[in-house]
Amino acid sequence: MNALIISGGNIDISFAREYINNYDYDYLVVADKGLETTEALGLNPDLIVGDFDSVDPALIHRYETDPKSVESVLRFKAQKDYTDTQIAVERAVKYGVSHIEVLGATGDRLDHVLGNIAVMKYALRWDATMSIVDANNRITMIDKSLTISKKDQYGKYVSVIPYSGEAKGVTLTGFAYNVEDETFYDDTSLGVSNEIADETARIEVKEGLLLIVESDRLKKMQ
């Protein structure tokens, strides 16, 4: 099963509408201010979570008092240990999904962006893959392998960045710059701005974690 999470970061509504129309999801979780986005898009959430400190009180009240509008609304205290996005991811993986796409996980708050990237590691521990998507980038964390077709790649560039220390046994095939069984260290920019050369490219890692950042989507579309 696939899950879609709409969080409270910056979201281009026209992009979100186009993206969601092409993404087949089974479970929709909305985190806090993301509820305003789902309203604008006319979507029906399965689950709403958050402290709702940045949501119109009348809007969240309507969902909390109308049992037909949503399966469940979980309200948390503002003074909590985890972000609303992490809570949404935790609920999604416990629901049993195998892949999560998150919109609204990037924006002006860099601390939240970094926190959301860290939550991708949590998803992997539950055997679920997770991607953070905005109008120009798709970020995926892997601990084994990922195959990307040239026709389906999200942007012009593919960057391979070690996360949480060094990544060992990294092999890249089908790229402009290929490597075999290399170690990527977290104090260099070695893997930034690669490009897919063949019809299909593959990334493998034997030990450690890699962030795969597909970027420059808007330029690719021009």
Description:
The chain is built from six helices and twelve strands. The chain is of the alpha/beta class and 222 residues long. The protein folds into two domains: 2-135, Thiamin pyrophosphokinase, catalytic domain (Rossmann fold); 142-221, 3-Layer(aba) Sandwich (Rossmann fold), CATH 3.40.50. Strands 1, 2, 3, 4, 5, 6, 7, 8, 9, 10, 11 and 12 form a twelve-stranded mixed sheet that branches. Strand 5 (99-103), helix 5 (110-125) and strand 6 form a beta-alpha-beta unit. Helix 4 packs parallel to helix 5 (110-125). The chain is elongated and about 55 Å long. The two termini are 33 Å apart.
Question: What does the secondary structure layout of this molecule look like, with pairings?
Answer:
Layout: E1 2-6, H1 13-21, E2 27-31, H2 34-41, E3 47-50, H3 57-65, E4 72-75, H4 84-95, E5 99-103, H5 110-125, E6 129-133, E7 137-142, E8 145-149, E9 157-173, E10 179-184, E11 200-204, E12 207-215, H6 217-221
Parallel strand pairs: 1-2, 1-5, 2-3, 3-4, 5-6
Antiparallel strand pairs: 6-7, 7-12, 8-11, 9-10, 9-11, 9-12
Helix pairs in contact: 4-5
